[in-house]
Amino acid sequence: MKFTIEQIKAEHRKVKSGADFPAYIQAIKKLGVSNYTVYVTDGNTQYFDTDNETGQTGKKYDHLTISENLDLERFKTRLKLHHRMAGPIILLSAMTVRKQE
Q1: Tell me, what's a Pfam family for it (predicted)?
Q2: pLDDT tens digits for 7-19?
Q3: Strand runs (DSSP E) across 1-101, as ranges?
Q4: What are the tens digits of pLDDT across the range 19-50?
Q5: Residue 74 burial (C-beta neighbours within 10 Å; 0-12, 13-18, 19+)
Q6: How many domains does the chain have?
Q7: Taking the mean position of all CA atoms in its chain, how far away is CA 23?
């Protein structure tokens, strides 16, 4: 693997606001991160390199039950509000957020 979770955490500690996020993404890309998956149910993040090798942060909180029902319009409204408050954010093109099975 081309990076360590500690290297990623060190870059993440530099993020103080949404304005810092693009530099964070560029920094972890330079470390060799090609994409990552965040598991909403427990906060674990799995990072992938170009060889599809992975490193994980481990769970950050107790398991959350995620509703099977989604109010898509409410979600879009809340997401837009979040982006206005956090500032513009550039994400890795292959980033995914999915429910952990």
Answers
A1: DUF1398
A2: 999 999 999 887 8
A3: 33-39, 45-49, 54-56, 96-98
A4: 888 999 999 999 999 999 999 899 999 999 99
A5: exposed
A6: 1
A7: 14
